[in-house]
Design goal:
There is one protein chain. Helix 13 runs antiparallel to helix 17. By secondary structure, the chain is an all-alpha fold. The radius of gyration is 20 Å and the shape is globular. The longest helix is centred in the middle third of the chain and has 38 residues. The two termini are 14 Å apart. The chain contains 17 helices and no strands.
Length: 407
């Protein structure tokens, strides 16, 4: 198979994997109340299980990144598809809280594989890195939208269980196909190297490493905050539509409206991905975060108007989605290929383990302070991310970033 065909296959597989990752992480947002009723739990107690899923989604990223640097990305992606299918089946068939918890833990661990592994593979195996990350980000946004968009109507027509079981079948079929097909040399391990690999200039490796440590520290702090506000927003959005004057209590409609709003994230992903190939990603990161806090805050203030809320939520989703290809591109730019999986895994451990607290916090804040306070909290966390991004932008680097030719 030619290099271009391998690149196309990598892009297709990683796009499908990214979409499924976010489907499994958002499928429960419009059906949480139904699940709580079946298990005789309060809603804020049920959100703990969602938090458990996203906690292990973050924790599992660290070993996934290390394993991909040593074993290659292909075998990890096979494990992703099969593991997601098994975890979703356990959740869909669960009859007690212990089985439910076990299913969510496994689902979290399985979905944790994609981000460090898939993003590392894209940055190593596709020449037009920024555009590919943008396209892959669109797939993630589509998945984020499809979770509530499909789960709500399915729950109304059948049961919330079929939302998990249906997506499990899709994931299993793709995993079996991938196990029988190759993704090329980019999906194999690369030689181990230090942080200074491929760097030019008068700086010593120690100096360059110190600069990079400071840079990554503030970037990763910003990305951790990003995980918190992302989960706060996504968890609260279907409920916000439900309380915004919609003349129905049916789960499907609030899930569909939330899905439509989240679908606009695809626009932000594509625009940001194209810009990453042309401009300094650190500047783009600051610009994106400048717009996020006020748009999130606005969503929490528009509960009385359904049309206005849908428009504001769509804009917020689009702006929030721009940071994903920007974050991945800036991490790839300043890290050598042999460390790529580990760098991405560290990001997702922080963004989705610490960030997973947003799922649980959303339930607690909404119960005790009201739903608008959830969006106000998310906006405040986004403002903190902006401060960290500004510091990262102002940090001087003593040598240019690693020079590499993608496979």
């Amino acid at each position: 198979m030619s290099k271009s065909n391998y690149q196309l296959r990598i892009l297709i597989v990683t796009c499908v994997a990214h979409a499924l990752t976010h489907i499994f992480l958002t499928v429960f947002t419009p059906i949480g109340a139904l699940m709580a009723r079946d298990f005789e739990l309060e809603y804020d107690d049920m959100t703990f299980f969602f938090f458990l899923c996203t906690l292990f989604f973050g924790l599992g990223a660290l070993p996934s990144g290390f394993l991909s640097d040593r074993l290659g990305e292909w075998i990890l992606l096979v494990a992703f598809f099969v593991g997601c299918a098994i975890g979703a089946v356990i959740v869909g068939l669960a009859r007690d809280v212990w089985t439910l918890g076990a299913g969510f833990v496994l689902l979290g661990l399985a979905t944790s594989i994609f981000h460090p592994v898939g993003n590392a593979l894209i940055t190593k195996g596709i020449a037009a890195r920024g555009r590919a990350l943008g396209i892959n980000g669109i797939a993630g946004s589509v998945g984020t939208a499809l979770g509530p968009l499909v789960a709500g109507p399915v729950a109304d027509l059948t049961s919330w269980r079929w939302a998990f079981l249906g997506f499990a079948a899709v994931s299993l079929v793709i995993g079996v196909w991938l196990a029988r097909n190759d993704l090329g040399p980019a999906a194999r391990p690369v030689p181990r190297s230090g942080f200074a690999t491929g760097e030019r200039g008068s700086s010593t490796p120690r100096q360059v490493g110190a600069d990079r440590v400071a840079l990554f520290t503030f970037l990763l702090l910003a990305m951790t905050c990003g995980g918190v506000y992302f989960h706060l927003f996504n968890m609260a959005l279907p409920s916000q539509f439900s309380e915004a004057g919609i003349e129905t209590t049916r789960t499907g409609q609030s899930g569909v409206l939330a899905g439509i709003a989240l679908l606009f994230g695809a626009v932000g992903q594509m625009v940001a991905g194209s810009l990453c190939d042309r401009y300094d990603e650190r500047k783009l990161y600051v610009g994106a975060l400048l717009a996020i806090a006020p748009t999130i805050y606005l969503v929490g203030q528009l509960a009385p108007g359904t049309v206005g809320l849908l428009a504001a939520a769509s804009v917020a989703s689009m702006v929030m989605a721009t940071v994903q290809p920007i974050e991945n591109s800036v991490l790839a730019r300043f890290s050598p290929p042999a460390w790529r999986g580990r760098i991405f895994s560290l990001k997702f451990v922080l963004a989705f383990s610490v960030g997973a607290s947003g799922n649980w916090l959303a339930g607690v804040i909404a119960k005790h302070l009201g739903l608008p306070r959830v969006f106000e909290t998310a906006g405040a966390v986004a403002a903190l991310a902006l401060v960290c991004a500004i510091v990262a932008r102002l940090l001087p680097l003593r040598a240019p970033p690693p020079t590499e030719a993608p496979a």
